[in-house]
Amino acid sequence: MEITTLQRGSITVIAIAGSIDGMTATTLVTSFREQVAGGNVRIVSDFAAVEYTSSAGLRALLETVKETRQQGGDLRLAAVQPDVLRVLELSGFTHILKLFPDVEAAVASFPA
Amino acid sequence: MTAGDANGPRVAVVLGSGSVKCAAALGLLKVLKREGIGVDMIVGCSGGSLYAALIALGHEVEEAEAMTRRLWTRELTSRRNHRSLLSVFLPGIFGFDESFGMVDDGLILRRLLDAFGTSTFADAKIPLYLTATDFHTGEQVVFESGPIVDAIRASIAIPYIFRPWPAGGRMLVDGFMSDPMPVGVAIRQGANVIVTMGFESPYQHKINSPLRFAFQLSSITSNNLLKSNFAFHNLAHHAEILPILPEFADRIHLFDTDKIPYVIQEGERAAERQVPYLRRLLGRG
Fold first, then answer.
1. pTM value?
2. A21 and B281: CB-CB below 8 Å?
3. Exposure check for chain B: N or C terminus, fewer CB within 10 A?
């Protein structure tokens, strides 16, 4: 899994490539935690290149969305691919996470 | 199918409800066998209970497919249970009770006996758990001993169609009513890596009969139950749950057994996508 982070104004965009699973979720959680600890709680995660997410991936997302929301921010997902979307739907995550078709829309969804 | 590695993570296969779609489990089985990935336990519910039992008893894919095609045909629902139907309209005379089921279940029982005979859970080569639902309390009931036919018959007691099945002093209905994909059983039994396959109940295209109306309500409830339970299990489990989600371009109906080869193929395809990760998880990648 590869993680690329860039700042778009007050929004942190974290692009992930590969699978989010038991072997990689810790790396992702660490990356999310670093951002939240640094006060970056308005996060867009670019899922365009995420191939798969397992239960470990779901737990990583849940931890981060709770942390960011507790601090007035949010974790929003962009460009979720069909295989990953099916897992998010099956696990009810589409009810609690905000999903957007692309990074631009996700970034724009945060109030200025 | 071989037993799991005693020193490695405990691997469970969980097969949820989904009628004929559950034959996709045979595609998963093919992949696990080809990769030499052993399984420590198998959990099945509703349609998945048939395949869980066939796999646990050691049947090969081709044999299991042939057995299913003999067992699960449209004829199963062709004989009405007239007494039950009359009891709906004339309960005072015919006595409506919890044993209601619109279809005469004699044929399904005979076919289950033909397929599984007197096999018990003790005959399973891999520990087997099959689930049903207590009609009176709604609790999940897990079979892990006794005759396999009893457990499957209870697990596939489709509401309104087959009468609830008495076993162990309880009246039992289809396992999907308490959990359509019983991952919790595998968690409780100490599984680490849980490979699971299950399906949402189809929604009716057209509501043109009371039965379709009832099925639609049942699908709404069970699909929401599937999602909420799956979410909880994903968050509660300490290790890994891998959903194998075959995609079907065609709609698969309750008795589309002629589509089983296609269903198996899609199950195999979906399982193959997870093999690299599964191998890494098991330290073999």
1. 0.90
2. yes
3. C
